[in-house]
Amino acid sequence: MPAKPKLGQNFLNDPQAVQRIVSALGDCSHETVVEIGPGQGVLTHALAPRVGNLIAIELDQHLASQLRTEFSSESLTVVNQDVLDFDFSSISVEQGKRLAVVGNLPYYITSPILLKLAASHAALDCAVLMMQREVADRVAAGPGSRDYGLLSVTVQMYGPVEKLFTLPPGAFSPPPEVHSTVVRWCFAPRFTSLGVDETGFLPFVRQAFAQKRKTLANNLRAAGIAPEIVVQAMTSAGIKPQSRAEALPIETLAELWKKLQVR
Prior knowledge:
Elements: E1 11-12, H1 15-24, E2 32-36, H2 42-47, E3 53-57, H3 61-70, E4 77-79, H4 88-95, E5 99-104, H5 110-119, E6 124-132, H6 133-140, H7 150-156, E7 161-167, E8 172-173, E9 180-186, H8 191-194, H9 198-208, H10 216-222, H11 227-236, H12 250-261
Parallel strand pairs: 2-3, 2-5, 3-4, 5-6
Antiparallel strand pairs: 1-8, 6-9, 7-9
C-alpha cells in the first residue's frame, strides 16, 4: 500500500533497525506495549511475539484493516484512531500496570504527541520513539547548547531522555528528506523532587523561553512580572542579570520559580 504524505507516512524498512528498537524496550514479555503509527506493520511483526499484549494505534483506516487481517486478535489489538485522542490512562487501569510505548512518529505532529505522552505520564513506564533528528536533538539537549529550549525542559521534566541511534533517509520508504533518531524516554516526573507545581511551573517555563533572543529578565518582564521582582528573584536564585533561559539547567529554573512564588 503506497504511503500517504499528508499523514507523514515514511515506513521503516531496515530489519536491523527494527531489532534495535525492539531490544531498546527491554523484556516486555509480560507487559502491555502501545505502538504508535504501525503503518505496514514492519515493527509490529517483530513486537507481537515478544510482548505480553500489543495495542496498535493507526489513523489510516486502510492500514488498520490490513493489520487486522494479518494478525490474530489474540496477538494484536488495532485501534483506528488519532493517537492524540487515545486514552492511555484507561488502558493502564484496565491492564493494572503502566504501559510501554513504541513508534515511528509522524514528523508533522511529533511535538503534540510528546506533549500527549507527558500528559499521560502516570500511565506510562517508558517510550522508545523515532523522530526527526533535529527534534530528538532538542528533546535530549542540555543547558548551554543551541538545541536546549522549551521542548527540552518540558519533556525532561517528565523523565530522562537518551538518544540511541540515528538512521539515514534510505532506511525508510519513501525516504524522507531528513535523518531520524531513536530515543528512549523513561517516565519519572521531577516536579516533586524539585519542589515545583506542574500547573504553575510549565507556564513559567514557556514565559522564560518566549523569545530566544531576549534575556530571561526581559522575557519575564514581558510576561507581566514587575522588574524589581524579577531582579530580586534572579539575584536570590544566583542567576546573572544578563542570563538567558537557554543557559540555565532545570534545577536553576525551578529555584527561580520558587523565589518568584514568595514575592
